[in-house]
TrEMBL record:
This is Aspartate carbamoyltransferase. Residues 6-148 form the Aspartate/ornithine carbamoyltransferase carbamoyl-P binding domain. One of its GO terms (cellular component) is cytosol. It catalyses: carbamoyl phosphate + L-aspartate = N-carbamoyl-L-aspartate + phosphate + H(+). Heterododecamer (2C3:3R2) of six catalytic PyrB chains organized as two trimers (C3), and six regulatory PyrI chains organized as three dimers (R2). Pfam families: OTCace (PF00185), OTCace_N (PF02729). L-aspartate binds at K86, R169, R223. Reversibly catalyzes the transfer of the carbamoyl group from carbamoyl phosphate (CP) to the N(epsilon) atom of ornithine (ORN) to produce L-citrulline. Carbamoyl phosphate binds at R58, T59, R108, H136, Q139, G264, P265.
């Protein structure tokens, strides 16, 4: 398969053929995960460390399950009880982890660029599980797989990404990935929740849901990232839902076959109506959760192959 990356730090540096390689392998892992026996030996003998500096439910559980199903030894590092809380720097943490000789390091961090810094200090493969407002690559990949399975393709679709764009690493990664795969992307939200320079992103920008949703094939809702907000970005949650919440009336403006997505966690009654979120005919939110495990299995498998090849080449070089 065509996947050359040493780390998975973002979508930005992946070529379209590498994205397809991840999705194609993930399809095989979807089938594996639906069997009675879900185990593989792709990561047998390898050690995976999950280090989450931010709280997470879906992503951490998904990475842990993915590693175990691939046969890795998986360790979840409790940052709340680690030396980081005692003042240890990120670089010292990286050096400490490196001395343990892990093979895969999964990191979520509140600061943009922190995962890239870690990757430059360790000898293993690093996967970005979300860093600040920067990127969340595996979320974009699982979203892409969900879209491809639901729509039968991942090109020439109209995708509406709605809500808190400014603070969302999910929006950024999806914007990059879907753009690489030649889709028409619309960003919908209040001007206060649009990033600066949004006009240079190569997408359409709307501050009215009805206009932005017209004819959309995919409607991707985002939550309000209150933990990243510093000030009053919206008048009130009630007003926000009235203007930017997705309910049956708003969804009617999209294509009749449009699918509804959400990366979670959902705030029902704030950005999405509960009935829409649970609509088995339109919502693929639970499919996203399922695809998350398969995509993370595929990413770790591909990175492990490259890591083994690199180590093998170095061993041969040493012998020569």
């Amino acid at each position: 398969m065509s996947f050359r990356a040493r780390h998975l730090l973002g979508i930005e540096h992946l070529a379209p053929d590498e994205i397809r390689a991840v999705l194609d392998l993930a399809e095989r892992y979807v089938d594996l995960n639906r069997r009675t026996v879900k185990s593989s030996d792709a990561l047998s003998g390898m050690t995976q460390i999950n280090m989450f500096f931010e709280n997470s439910t879906r992503t951490q559980a998904s990475f842990e399950l993915a590693g175990k199903r691939l046969g890795a030894d998986v360790m979840n590092m409790s940052v709340a009880q680690s030396s980081v809380k005692k003042g240890e720097t990120l670089i010292d943490t990286a050096l400490t982890l490196n001395a343990m000789h892990p093979d895969l390091l999964v990191v979520r961090h509140p600061n943009s660029g922190a995962v890239n810094l870690l990757a430059s200090k360790v000898n293993c493969a690093v996967l970005n599980a979300g860093d600040g407002r920067h990127e969340h690559p595996t979320q974009a990949l699982l979203d892409a797989l969900t879209i491809r399975r639901a729509k039968g393709r991942l090109q020439r679709l109209t995708v509406a990404i709605c809500g808190d764009i400014a603070h969302s690493r999910v929006a950024r990664s999806n914007l990059i990935l879907l753009g690489k795969m030649e889709n028409r992307i619309r960003l919908i939200g209040p001007p206060t929740l649009m990033p600066s320079g949004v006009g240079e992103f190569g997408c359409e920008v709307y501050d009215e849901m009805k206009e932005g949703l017209k004819g959309a094939d995919v409607v991707m809702m985002l939550r309000l990232q209150k933990e990243r907000m510093d000030g009053g970005f919206i008048p009130s949650e009630r007003e926000y839902y009235h203007r930017y919440g997705l309910d049956a009336e708003m969804l009617a403006y999209a294509s009749p076959e449009a699918i509804v997505m959400h990366p979670g966690p959902m705030n029902r009654g704030v950005e999405i109506d509960g009935e829409i979120a649970d609509d088995i005919n339109r919502s693929v939110i639970q499919d996203q959760v399922e695809m998350g495990v398969a995509v993370r299995m595929a990413c770790m498998d591909l990175l492990a192959r490259n890591l083994r090849a690199e180590r093998g080449a170095k061993a041969v070089g040493t012998l020569v």
